[in-house]
């Protein structure tokens, strides 16, 4: 069923892929962008629906490279459908779903299940990541070729990290064979040990075991060397330390296919937020020092860090409201991703274009997607954003099925007013009045 | 006897979760109250009525015969009805969360819950879910406030003061809640603190809590007034944090040779239970400079004082 053409006019169009930041309009026909223009788009038919987006930013829909759900296996935490509702509310039009489910997404049939299930129930594009190793056990590689044929967009062991350098080399070599990105959470388990927060004075005073920065930098250094050796498309799923930025900056000269992501939590928060024993801030990688956070912002500005993601990880209160060391890791984040990222814009730390690039153009390039840009021919996945809209994160307003947000009661500035997937509106903010506020 | 009771002074906290919540005047106040409690335990009729009719629950998620007994005796000497619960083998093993346990106990209307838990921060979490006073009897590697108070009282009894002294804390600093509470308390009372341990047992950032950090025990003990030894969890540490008990004892065990470097009148302390021959020579532990049994006695006085400060109705005591 085709929808009538759509014109979104009077918007501030911000498109990192083309570098465009100007007042203009967008023409959408048959789920695709057919024109982006300053002023009125040429060739807009009389029958087109017109949205006056005065006062709003029009950007590509966000692509979130790291989302966990509970489907299949733990649907009470989150389903693909409920995650997609949260995504739409947060301006995320495409997300990559991690394979950490029950059963694990390590077989073509389960990839197929995710794709079918998402097509039937989800409001936004859901792309499955397939497990890098069978059962996420870090022992045997999965059937990369068959998984790719089934529709997996990348390989990842999700929350798990490959401990063996030999296995990692084999995985990257074989992944390069099928041109699939390897997305890897870097954590040396022998250095993480029983650690539950950033190692340092705060952990010591709290009587909590620390996780040293080297638990991340040592496996990252290993992976980057293996990426150069194998030529694999390697993506460090999430980095958190100043040392990692240095390693990435050096390695990207030799291995241009290497890239890195960061959770918005590690950009917007730091270890001080953990005190006293706030388990909603228990994350992996842990929130690091303010010096680390500053280094990550510099890395983002320099392009050393490519991608910002939500690390959306729904957990029920049973496993979260526990003594800190015993509580599960992870926080939801789809709904707050953009607003939390806009904190960096409002504070003057990162330009809007850079923040958007890390959530649109770069993930699209890394995954080889046609979306993430506002260009003729691209899917009409886009968002309208009021970058200044003030709001407070309240538990009652959370769309996700789980409530474990690291931004509970946070004051945020900037909200998604409307989200479009393939030209169809999938979310509209209750406060939005067309034609300006 | 009325002077030994709550002395009519209000105490400005509902719970005692850690030394970190107290300022130096409140610390001093608790030590003074504890000192006033000592005679109660030494007289024939060892009781005060200030907690009569109150219910005290000792909730221990980690076994500890001595601390539990100390709190139990303290409560009973003040007239409270005391119930001991060891949770290790009961509901928690069946998957009940700490918060469920807290809600269940809270419904039984206790006046005070004394909690020991293996996880740092667990006692504070529980305190948020109950409507009565909570005393931390040790949470993970975080705090053990009544131990630090009884140590301070013991030191003051022997040295006549706290301020200006030099106290060395030796051993497994990384995993010790006793070390953290003592460093906080002694730091607040202008005591010079030294921590002495091999680097594997020194946590990052410890220099912000202690005046000085030593890895050479001999140098660290020079001129100290108090030598406080910590228990080494040698089953856990062996092969990783320390290579062997005999090497640990050689470099970090307190023997006569090393003790000779402390001041001639230095006292030796240990929170118990001791590993004789691991961190301390039995001859020192049981020798004339050891005040270890005195610490145990002060433990009851301190716990009586804390219970009294948190629970006693000052108007009733004054009457």
Please specify the SSE layout and strand pairing.
The complex is a heterodimer of chains A (437) and B (319).
Chain A: E1 6-15, E2 20-29, E3 32-37, E4 49-52, E5 57-60, E6 62-67, H1 80-89, E7 92-97, H2 108-121, E8 125-130, H3 144-150, E9 154-156, H4 165-177, E10 182-184, H5 189-192, E11 197-198, H6 201-206, E12 210-211, H7 214-230, E13 234-236, H8 242-254, E14 259-263, H9 264-268, H10 290-302, E15 307-309, H11 317-320, H12 337-346, H13 352-357, H14 361-367, E16 382-392, E17 411-421, E18 424-428
Parallel strand pairs in A: 1-4, 1-5, 6-7, 7-8, 8-9, 9-10, 10-13, 11-12, 13-14, 14-15
Antiparallel strand pairs in A: 1-2, 2-3, 5-16, 16-17, 17-18
Chain B: H1 24-42, E1 55-60, H2 65-77, E2 81-86, H3 98-107, E3 112-117, H4 122-127, E4 133-139, H5 145-159, E5 166-170, H6 177-188, E6 192-196, E7 212-214, H7 217-221, E8 226-229, H8 234-237, H9 245-252, H10 256-259, E9 267-269, H11 282-285, H12 292-311, H13 314-318
Parallel strand pairs in B: 1-2, 1-3, 3-4, 5-6, 5-8, 6-7, 8-9
Q: Could you explain the architecture of this structure?
A:
The complex is a heterodimer of chains A (437) and B (319). Chain A is of the alpha/beta class. Chain A is built from 14 helices and 18 strands. The model of chain A has no long low-confidence stretch (mean pLDDT 96). Helices cover 39% and strands 14% of the residues of chain B. In chain B, helix 4 (122-127) links the parallel strand 3 and strand 4. In chain B, helix 1 packs across helix 5. The longest helix of chain B is centred in the last third of the chain and has 20 residues, at 292-311. Chain B is globular. The two termini of chain B are 13 Å apart. The relative contact order of chain B is 0.16. Classes of the chains: A alpha/beta (437), B alpha/beta (319).
